[in-house]
Amino acid sequence: MNRLLAGKKALILGVADKHSIAWGIAQAMHDQGASLAFTYQEEPKGRLERNVRKLVATLGNPEDFLLFPCDVTDDSTIDALFRVIRSEWKGLDTLVHCIAFADRDDLNKPFSQISRAGYKLAMEVSAYSLNVLARAAAPLMDERGGGSIIALTYNAVEKAVPGYNAMAAAKAALEVGVRYLAVELGLSKIRVNAISAGPVRTLSASAVKGLSALRRWTEEVSPLRENVTLADVGNTAVYLASDLSRMVTGNVIYVDSGTHVLAAQVGAVEHRQQ
Q1: In 147-247, which residue ranges form alpha helices assigned H by DSSP?
Q2: How many CB atoms within 10 Å of residue 265?
Q3: Is the predicted pLDDT of residue 185 greater than 80, yes or no?
Q4: Exposed, middle or buried, 269 (CB in 10 Å: 0-12/13-18/19+)?
Q5: Is 40 helix (H, G, I), strand (E, B) or coil?
Q6: CB atoms within 10 A of CB 231
Q7: How far apart are CA 251 and CA 36, in angstroms?
Q8: 184-189 contacts at long range (C-beta below 8 A, 24 or more positions apart)
């Protein structure tokens, strides 16, 4: 049986630990035959690098995978990353953007009280980084006849989710970027889409108050009555990276058990009736 991503080369940014959505995507893409490259954020203690290296070792021979340090706020490290990708692979088929950061204080305080510096930081890391990475990846994808760029978002863009605050604004900007990049890169057959996942227990999600309540609500009220798993998101990313989605671009695809179609009051009424 042919695997959907056989022969394709994918760069995944944002793996932090085994609970990361980025890692769920990596596992799914590996299972479907993709060659994988990963990045990690450099830090004094090297914890994130060690985490990524340990995880990669569970997929097979570590020498079969590429690992690079990358700080998306530093153009020089991005330039260095793509120079090596070009040298090692001669091209790129898929870029998976799973990078997001906001200061914990700016997630928990009222939206009107978000600091100027915190707002700018969330925007730069979580949204503007997609522009920079797409700009660097596009020439490598063009050499392969096209490609797929995949970002992660969340429905706090359209609904006010307590505790998401600064990150909600950044995700809104990210979704705008997805649409504009889809138009700009479409002539090169580069598709740009986002996955909006339901509440998944990840390291970054732990900073959002009320995550457990959202997961309970998903199980009790959503159309499918089930929480989303890393594998669910990973499988959708495989589809977006594969040739099956060759005419799909500029979209936000919801992998959330259908909760995005519900108004809050609808869920509350249905919950009371059960």
Answers
A1: 165-185, 211-221, 230-241
A2: 8
A3: yes
A4: exposed
A5: strand
A6: 13
A7: 24
A8: 185/134, 185/138, 185/149, 186/249, 188/138, 188/141, 188/142, 188/146, 189/145, 189/146, 189/147
Beta bridge partners of 194: 151, 252
Coil/strand/helix, residue 180: helix
Question: Taking Cα atoms as reference points, which of 240, 152, 230, 234 lies closest to residue 196?
Answer: 152
* pTM recorded for the entire structure: 0.90
Q: Which residues, 6 or more positions from 255, have their beta carbon under 8 angstroms from its beta carbon?
A: 195, 196, 197, 198, 228, 232, 233, 236
The 10s digit of each residue's pLDDT in 8-43 is 999 999 998 999 999 999 999 999 999 999 999 887
Query: What residues are annotated to the active site?
Result: 154, 164
Select from 168, 156, 151 the least CA-distant residue to 22: 151
Please check whether residue 196 is in contact with residue 254, taking contact to mean a CB–CB distance below 8 angstroms.
yes
DSSP 8-state secondary structure symbol assigned to residue 125: I
Query: Residue 95's closest CA among 237, 207, 271?
Result: 237
pLDDT tens digits for 46-86? 888 999 999 999 999 989 999 999 999 999 999 999 999 99
Q: Say which residue the tokens 């022969």 belong to.
A: 7
- Structural domains in the chain, sorted by start: 9-272 (3.40.50.720)
